[in-house]
Design goal:
The chain is built from four helices and nine strands. It has a five-stranded antiparallel β-sheet with strand order 2-3-4-7-8, with helices on both faces. A two-stranded parallel sheet has the order 1-9. It has helices spanning 27-40, 132-145, 156-161, 163-171; strands at 5-6, 45-47, 57-61, 76-88, 92-97, 105-110, 113-119, 125-131, 180-181. With 186 residues, the chain is of the alpha+beta class. It has a single domain (5-171), classed as Peptide Deformylase (Alpha-Beta Complex).
């Protein structure tokens, strides 16, 4: 089932999400719905707060970036209760978008290498290193469960330049090619 994606301005996007365990009701169906919602919106990642659930869960399918990095071809993963243990290297800029911000892209600086501990759908624990675009997508989605959105990471000057755009997202006057739920829908 395709779920409405929460637009910027909804308080759920500002909240630090909580951990879950295997008794979380309807988890398998929720994950299935998140995949369907993400693919329907042509996204490469979707975090649970973006569908209105403040839990530490996100899904990523980085295969559209296969051309940039061959090892992303099979990068399709569910991350539950993740913790980024380490971020290393010189910050680099990458043009990011976010399904909660239709029609907006901004360059965001992040470190290129991370180590993350997480659980999969079976609640098996993994610890892995990622770099480049894979690390980038994980960092973006991880921010969501920490209550941070990508425009929090751009300069105040840049944010001022997109103020009207952000207001139109809050108000729900922006156009999106997928189903959304806006903070202040009139
Ligand atoms: Ni996002």
């Amino acid at each position: 089932m395709i779920l409405p994606i929460v637009g910027y301005g909804d308080p759920v996007l500002k909240k630090k999400a909580g951990e879950i365990d295997s008794s979380y009701p309807g988890l398998k169906e929720l994950i299935d719905n998140m995949w369907e919602t993400m693919y329907n919106a042509s996204g490469v990642g979707l975090a649970a707060p973006q569908i209105g659930k403040s839990i530490r869960l996100f899904v990523i399918d980085a295969s559209p970036f296969e051309e940039e990095d061959n090892k992303l071809k099979d990068f399709k993963k569910v991350f539950i209760n993740p913790v980024i243990i380490e971020e290393r290297g010189q910050e680099w800029y990458f043009n990011e978008g976010c399904l909660s911000f239709p029609d907006l892209r901004e360059d965001v600086a992040r470190r290129p290498r991370i180590r993350i501990r997480y659980q999969d759908e079976e609640f098996k624990i993994f610890e892995q290193d990622y770099d480049g675009i894979a690390a980038r997508i994980i960092q973006h989605e991880y921010d969501h469960i920490e209550g941070i959105v990508f425009v929090d990471r751009i300069t105040p000057l840049k944010r001022r330049l997109i103020k009207n755009k952000l207001t139109s997202i809050v108000k729900g006057t922006v156009k999106a090619s997928y189903k959304m739920r806006f903070a202040r829908n009139t």
